[in-house]
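Task: sequence design from structure.
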């Protein structure tokens, strides 16, 4: 069996969130985005504590929240990622910044 596509993961994450009542009423987009930021902050805390298992779980939570949001908003994030990768391929080394 092959690994699920990003589109399939988006559909799965959104379906689970819907089944748990998180989409019974319209979602506040800003709040949903801040929940993603919260998951990243929790990943940072796990990294700081050198808790590798929790770090990985919080990164997974970040993707789950992003995929759920994209599913709820009807965004084909797989297509958007591919478009952005094509755009990034055309950018200069380190995006032209001197680091």
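Answer:
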């Amino acid at each position: 069996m092959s690994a699920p596509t990003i589109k399939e993961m988006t559909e799965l994450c959104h379906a689970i969130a819907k089944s748990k009542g998180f989409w019974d009423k319209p979602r506040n987009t800003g709040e949903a985005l801040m929940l993603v930021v919260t998951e990243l902050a929790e990943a940072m805390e796990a990294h700081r504590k050198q808790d590798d298992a929790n770090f990985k779980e919080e990164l997974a939570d970040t993707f789950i929240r992003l995929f759920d949001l994209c599913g709820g908003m009807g965004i084909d994030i797989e297509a958007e990622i591919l478009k952005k990768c094509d755009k990034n391929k055309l950018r200069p080394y380190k995006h032209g910044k001197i680091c």
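The chain has a mean pLDDT of 96.
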